[in-house]
Design a protein that fits this description.
With 503 residues, this protein is α/β, with parallel strands linked by helices. The chain has 2 domains: 4-240, 3-Layer(aba) Sandwich (Rossmann fold); 259-497, P-loop containing nucleotide triphosphate hydrolases (Rossmann fold, 3-Layer(aba) Sandwich). The chain has 17 helices and 20 strands. The strands form 4 sheets. It has a 6-stranded mixed β-sheet with strand order 6-7-8-3-9-10, with helices on both faces. Helix 4 (117-130) crosses helix 5 (146-159). The longest helix has 16 residues, at 176-191.
């Protein structure tokens, strides 16, 4: 008989009358890595929040080591040996690593109220050694890289004697080397008796790591079993409920000869150096580069968020210096940032308020500072329908309540409402499930077919190969290669990024 550390038995959960978990029954074997996959909104986070004591379930039961388990708060879950490592890491960046480890229970000097600094430093170092992280426990978290912060979270979980560790999209901000290091650690934790629940939209990572895979769709378990029963296509079909013959929609148009954006000899000290390229109307131009290559910084300079030292940015044939975001909006340039939660959306505002934000001047009466509210509302409803944004009421529901894929579509809709002719997208599908990715690719494809010029920045080579007409490769602030669609080759693009050959 298999040894299960955790069992979910017919768990149900509803929010405001909407059922988000429906009789979910899952068995988690001890000392296994269990991959939990599903589209955004499938119920993964709700189920894990129940496990972590963040929210209660409505009916059903959980068994931990064969005993009833129903935590009333996260502290009780931690005491039971449950650790949750979130996509947005729960660390106090202004505190030291050691202080983060003991933030809820600082050891004291004897019977005094004074903190035993030497003890927390020593204990923190012991757990940092366990994850092979060579940093001082006294260093401030804000000085650490995303990969180092991820390992600090794991070390913190070990300091709490966690038996079940949940990883939620752990590699979204990591370099390839940091990801490899994390995978090595997960395998070691498993060998040491820990049970891992691994949530990710990167399906090849789930296949590489998991012993078992569980698929949620619309709040129900639709498939589960050992990973030998799964391949990428099986995972996708189970998640979306239909067969996706291809991960990427076929390009339905070709770029025109007309140039929408041209960059000449653009430089900013220490950031980008002598950047030259052109972006044509109807073209999807990809930019690939390793972390620190300067790809996101280049986008910010073009949009006017950052300054540059020399060079020219030419919009529709006209030199456009002294860039600002307001000027870019006036020139019908859109920028979908990689950090949608902090920079792309007003999370506590409604979907409608977010979508109408940029386009407000287009719906203003020319003779007064009044809005044509009926026309604006109709345009928002049409855009919600066009983008298939899953929301009960766009005029009442806040953006923070949407899944990641739907949040990203709201950001796209905001700029589509402004009829943008040049669109810059930076990691537009990060943290988005495979079904929503396909929908986003289709939207960009249709925009390009209508003549929109799209600059597509991504750290995923496969994504760029599947979507783009051309790919520029950046490294150390320079353009190292220029690949046309007929020349796309994953290995050659990656070699170019590492300065081992270009085109």
């Amino acid at each position: 008989m298999e040894d299960f550390i955790l069992r979910f038995c017919e768990i149900n959960k509803s929010f405001f009358g909407v059922k988000v978990l429906k009789n979910v029954s899952i068995d988690i074997p001890r000392r296994h890595v269990v991959g939990l996959i599903g589209e955004n909104g499938a119920g993964k986070s709700t189920l894990m929040n129940i496990l972590g004591g963040v929210i209660p379930f409505d009916s059903g039961k959980m068994l931990l080591d064969g005993k009833n388990y129903a935590p009333q708060n996260p502290a009780q879950a931690v005491s039971a040996g449950i650790a949750f490592i979130h996509q947005e890491l729960n660390l106090f960046t202004n505190l030291s690593v050691a202080e983060n480890f003991f933030i809820s229970d600082f050891p004291k000097l004897g019977k005094t109220p004074l903190i035993d600094r030497q003890r927390i430093r020593k204990r923190a170092q012991e757990f940092l050694d366990q994850v092979n992280l060579k940093i001082s426990p006294d260093i401030s978290v804000e000085k650490l890289s995303p990969g180092e912060r991820q390992l600090v979270e794991v070390a913190k979980a070990l300091s709490q004697d966690a038996r079940i560790i949940i990883f939620d999209e752990p590699t979204t901000s990591l370099t390839a080397r940091e990801t490899e290091r994390l995978f090595e650690l997960i395998k070691r934790l498993k060998s040491e008796g820990k049970t891992i629940i691994y949530i990710s939209h990167i399906l090849r990572d789930v296949l590489q790591l998991a012993d078992d895979i569980i698929v949620l769709r619309d709040g129900e378990v639709v498939k589960s079993g050992p990973k030998s029963e799964f391949d990428i296509q099986t995972m996708i079909s189970s998640m979306v409920g239909r067969y996706l013959g291809a991960l990427y929609p076929e390009r339905v148009s070709k770029p025109t000869d007309e140039i929408a954006l041209e960059v000449r000899h653009l430089s900013r000290a220490g950031i980008v150096h002598d950047i030259n390229f052109s972006l044509h109307k109807g073209e999807i131009l990809g930019i690939f580069g390793l972390m620190g290559s300067g790809r996101s910084e280049l986008a910010q300079i073009i949009f006017g968020l950052d300054t540059y030292d020399k060079g020219e940015i030419i919009i529709e044939g006209n030199v456009s210096n002294h860039r600002t975001p307001i000027k870019s909006v006036q020139q019908n340039i859109a920028f979908v940032t990689e950090n949608r939660r902090e920079e792309g959306l007003l999370m506590t505002s409604t979907v409608a308020e977010n979508m109408g934000l940029v386009a407000l001047p287009r719906f203003s009466m020319s003779f007064a500072s009044l809005l044509r509210q009926g026309s604006l509302a109709e345009a928002i409803r049409n855009m919600v329908s066009l983008l298939q944004i899953r929301v009960n009421d766009a005029f009442k529901n806040q953006a923070k309540g949407l899944s990641g894929g739907n949040q990203q579509k709201v950001v796209l809709g905001k700029w589509l409402m402004n009829d943008s002719s040049i669109l810059i997208v930076d990691e537009p599908t990060r943290g988005v499930d495979v079904g929503a990715k396909y929908e986003i690719y289709s939207i960009l494809n249709e925009m390009a077919a209508k003549g929109t010029a799209i600059l597509f920045i991504s750290s995923e080579i496969e994504e760029l190969i599947g979507v783009c007409d051309r790919i520029l490769v950046m490294g150390m602030g320079e353009i190292l290669g220029n690949f046309h669609r007929a020349e796309f080759n994953r290995e050659q693009i990656l070699r170019t990024a590492f300065r081992e050959g270009g085109s």
